[in-house]
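During the reporting period, our protein records have gained a structure token line. One record among many is quoted in full directly below:
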Amino acid sequence: MHNADRGIFDLRRGHPIRVSGSGTDVLAAAVEGLTPGQLDRLTVMTGGRPRLILTPHRASAMGWPQPLEEGWEGVALQPTGTVDPESLFVLASAPEGSDDASSAARLLEGAVLQRAGESEAAALELVRAGRLLPAVVTSSIPDPEPEAIASAVADGMLLDVDAAQAREVAEHPRLELAHVSEAPVPLADAPVTRFMLFREGNGIQEHVAVVIGEPSRWPDPVPVRLHSACLTGDLFGSLRCDCGDQLRRGVKMINDSGGGVLLYLAQEGRGIGLANKLRAYTMQHAGMDTIDSDCQLGFGADGRRYEAAVEMLEFLGIDRVRVLTNNPAKIDALRAGGIEVASREPVHGTVNPHNLRYLSTKADRGGHWLEELLAAEASRG
């Protein structure tokens, strides 16, 4: 495991890390879960003032469109007042215009917007890869390096992560999927089914190939669905989305077609993680759509990746598929990975008053093929 992979674990555990780059080296900690003691340690060890590092999407949501328009990798803000972890969290996550955001904004009065340095941007990528709120607090390490920092690194108490390596791991993860275990799991709509679990090389994420029917009897092309995990919809039947319907209908459609594979991918909340998904839900309850709420938190419209799906299909010896999806990005990703997509079949859920806006946003802003479903709903009045 690279130090960068370990850095993701440390940041998720609330531990600061040292990030070394071609410019200024920094101590960095995740804003999510930050405690007063950790923030104090950061500034005492460096003797400097903390900087808040945000994504361009978050800066745009706060009223600064320039970083997103110009493709900055990160945005650095130097709070002008005394900061505390709660205020930093509000600055990084509260909906713009809310009372909390307006109160915390006083810390940025007179602050100058700057591009994040290489090390700061790398730390930001690591927390995003760890599915934390995409925001870090950093403090520059002076030259010569303080003895306290050098000793902590030498003793293994502080992890030193190379900025270039961190960005490579975050942007181009080495999946190196390992087939870990498998077992027969008969399902209501697919009695002959086997679950095969795969673990990514860094040990962080696990994905499941739901193998339906006997592979020797599968049709050609093989029916395949890529399904991103949704705890609220898949397990609890949330009315906010159509994920649970798509999961169960996908299994039944594959079984009725003679068998195939449903790839259950650990990409909760379109890749932002469950904690951030629930934060986004709170904003959606107040009136935002799914894309705007994700952008308010500092994410893009859809952070999912499908390299794991390609690797699982390769392991199963599948190179020609009939994809059950409404999402053109999934087809593009499979083709980019060398999988032949012979055809597509839609998988529709049930429209209800709670998910109508969600589905409309998928179609209007996400490019999903849902015209037929939404037109049928509109015709019913």
Notes: The chain has two domains: 3-171, 178-267+304-379. The radius of gyration is 23 Å. The first strand starts at residue 17 and ends at 20.
